[in-house]
Design brief:
Pfam families: ABC2_membrane_2 (PF12679). The chain has 15 helices and no strands. The chain has 344 residues and is mostly helical. Helix 3 packs parallel to helix 9 (141-175), helix 6 runs parallel beside helix 10 and helix 11 runs antiparallel to helix 12 (253-267). The two termini are 33 Å apart.
Amino acid sequence: MTYTGGILKERMVDMVLFQNNKLNSEESGRGPSGNLYTIFKKEFSDQLSSTRFLILFFLILITGVASLYVAAASIRSTVEESGTDFIFLRLFTTSSSSLPPFTSFISFLGPLVGLSIGFDAINGEQNGSTLSRLLAQPVYRDDVINGKFLAGLAVLTIMTFALGGLVSGFGIMLTGIPPTAEEIARLVIYLLLNIVFMAFWLAISILFSILFRQTATSALGGIALWLLFTVFVPILAGPIANAVYPVKSQDDVISQLRNITLQQNISRVSPSTLYDEASAVLLSPGVRTLGPILMEQIYGATPGPLPLGQSLLLIWPHITGLIAGTLIIFGIAYTIFLRREIRA
């Protein structure tokens, strides 16, 4: 009885101490209700001060400014060929023989930024034995993963708008042409599209950091998936479409239409394809369709650029697909993390 009573007494003391620490932390603003903000602030400061983030940011900045400088240098010939409408937006889409446009750099390097932010979000702390210590405190698991994802999303937002502002200011200095209100609106929506696109890869990197114990494995898994979507899916779309709908003659218009449609649908499995098509519509208002054009569609159509509302309707499925993919992947990571047993 004495031994059992001693154990019960020790457990009661531990419970009282735990409740006191919990109340004290809540009174100081660091309780369970404030854990999300605390984790968010810590992860946000760590990401901004990390060397890998600075390296990737300056890499995108240098390549973007270089492509913008080439576009500004060749903007005169572009204006002579296609007029003076939307000159500011052409700085982001004009390419040269030496460098691709600014959107191509973001399409290629943007996923690397998202993957680099979250590939060690969970397994890095688990290998360092800090995750088990963190969860031993009155901290909810969902606060941990939500805080890490929101911190990465905030870093991507700041980086995107800072880069967009720097590149836009540099373009205005080179050309001396201020943007119109519609051009500013299209540019802001384009920057939001960049955030959604990189957030998709951020969610993938966090998922891999939960699935794989080693940080190198999660990083290689994210890079492999990026190469699959960016390189191999567009390459395999053509052979698969040719196998399903072979085009035997040039007069077989129906087979050609089905072949092109299937090839586009397979390519749109890749988030990079969705991003490229949405960027082309936003930054090039003259783009009126993303699929094959029939003579019935050309007849009676009004020439000229599309209004902003019509362009958004054209790319709304692309934006919805990227947002839905991000939420689904993060939901899977969220569920797995809540069910995962964390041992010291």
